[in-house]
């Protein structure tokens, strides 16, 4: 018989034409397929939502008896085209560089939708208020949740959509192909990049206000330079000569500066709630947890002083080790401080807390000793979850013993 049909061949000599599908594998494929369909539905729904929000800025038509909303299909098509292209580029960037975002895609789209709603509200009173749209605040939140790279990409997309809103609102009703508002896009992009880069490795909440000041200065300078680029020397000299006319050149930069400062103050106020709601492990939260006056650490120092001192030494060693390999040294130190928090429930069963007293394990069977020693891991997880410690800190508690024999 042929090579592939010879039944006398041993199993390892036969060529395989594919793996046999198991029920678990089929279910996993179906689940993956349903997730892709759900993500596609969310992407399309958000694109339509963004089109409606941006399109609501379209100017009204005068029909003689009053104004009605613009309904020109060319305008709506152009708006949808720009929104769809921006949305597609963002999805490609996420798929290429930020695949972890797909695990929480609804939350990410919720952030984007919130920004669009805020941007639309800023278009209601006056066009200059578009400079007050808190895109830097939105970018800082994205940076804290997903990282600086995605935050900058999101800020670019948000600035384009915001510029499109401003252009749509200020365009004539007969205009179908709409330019972007360069000043708004430039100011918001620069302000957001400064805010994202300045918010890395934050060690104090007051620094967010300083980051906001820097973002505001960047926006003000960008708006001022962009505005002056449209004037010739004669126009500028005339405005300066006229009393008070030069102030109008500072109005838009002032809005940009207030946007940066306001974003810094807003994120400073919102960050504690975001840390709890989204379980964010920011450096500021880690610093607060590393304070030895923290109630949980104080209780551990009283109930299990030996274990507490041991945790302090492990924290110092972990911090130095993390620094040497470029890891998050602050996270390593704080995780070490809480890794033995479960020993508070049975402190006398651990030798570092006996202070030369009788070792209780001498009167216990090896199996019972093993169970008691291992139980501090489960107790530590329970205590950490009840105290609402960040998930990375909770995960370090069961990891610190590994899987070796006790």
What does this structure look like?
- It is a single chain.
- The chain has 406 residues and is mainly α.
- It has 2 domains: 25-59 and 68-279, no CATH class; 285-399, no CATH class.
- It contains 15 helices and 2 strands.
- It has helices spanning 23-55, 73-97, 105-121, 135-146, 148-170, 182-198, 206-228, 233-241, 248-277, 283-290, 295-303, 305-325, 329-338, 366-386, 391-399, and strands at 61-62, 67-68.
- Helix 4 (135-146) packs antiparallel against helix 5 (148-170).
- The longest helix is centred in the first third of the chain and has 33 residues, at 23-55.
- It is elongated and about 85 Å long.
- The relative contact order is 0.06.
Strand fraction: under 5%
Total DSSP E strands = 2
Q: If you compute it from the alpha carbons, what radius of gyration comes out, rounded to the nearest whole angstrom? A: 30 Å
State the distance separating the first and last CA atoms.
58 Å
> How would you classify the quaternary structure?
single chain
* Biggest pleated-sheet summary: 2 strands, antiparallel
